[in-house]
Amino acid sequence: MASKRILLICRKAPYGNALARAAADMALAAGAFDQELAIAFIGDGVWQTIDQQDSTDIQQKNHQKLLSAFELYGISESYVEAEALTERQIEPSRLSLAAKPVNQQQLSELFEQADMLLTV
Amino acid sequence: MILHTVNKSPFSDSSFTDCLKFCRAGSSVLLIEDGVYAGKKATHYSELIENHRDITFYALAVDVNARGLKQDISTNITLISDSEFVELTVTHHSVQSWF
């Protein structure tokens, strides 16, 4: 049986609540079970991908480090919403993972192509 | 004077803009947790901050650092420590938290 293409859509900023972390854990679990998973960061979710995160003084795990494990778990397909980067003035050079900037229209096409959508 | 605290991202919640609507000259706004995203340089929200010269803006440094924004906060915002946060709460008449 062909495996389903899962698309995980992350739209929450990290640290403020546990959702960004839960979504990343879910992605790693799917990766560990060799599921075909891609990840898209949209809206405030793009804050997850920014570099220079230092969470030592708020006693939380570093989200940037968590995302850096994606590649190791076989998750190599990731996207960021270009419009969200522009609105937040985030330079593409600030992205901590090799995510591809795509526009909203391209994202909605990706949503159409996936067999299963998970939005967090 | 009132110390306003905002802990939600202005890009996905109206807490910050609601706070500004009710903020009076001389009061202070402290950005904490996801509220610090309002201070990101060159965005619509940091522009709002720059246009409100009669309000003093602060952001909690530990939350700024966690979110990777150490070098990206508008110059109109003063970064403060946890103990300075405590000082602000006692030097203001009351605290209004927008969440």
TrEMBL record, chain A:
Transmembrane segments: none annotated. One of its GO terms (molecular function) is transferase activity. InterPro entries: DsrEFH-like, Sulphur_relay_DsrE/F-like, Sulphur_relay_TusC/DsrF. Gene3D superfamilies: DsrEFH-like. The keyword Transferase applies. Keywords: Transferase. It holds the Pfam family DsrE. The keyword Transferase applies. Belongs to the DsrF/TusC family. This is Sulfurtransferase TusC. The lineage of its organism: Bacteria, Pseudomonadati, Pseudomonadota, Gammaproteobacteria, Cellvibrionales.
From TrEMBL, chain B:
One of its GO terms (cellular component) is sulfurtransferase complex. SUPFAM superfamilies: DsrEFH-like. InterPro entries: DsrEFH-like (IPR027396), Sulphur_relay_TusB/DsrH (IPR007215). It comes from the Bacteria. Pfam families: DsrH. One of its GO terms (biological process) is tRNA wobble position uridine thiolation. This is Sulfurtransferase TusB.
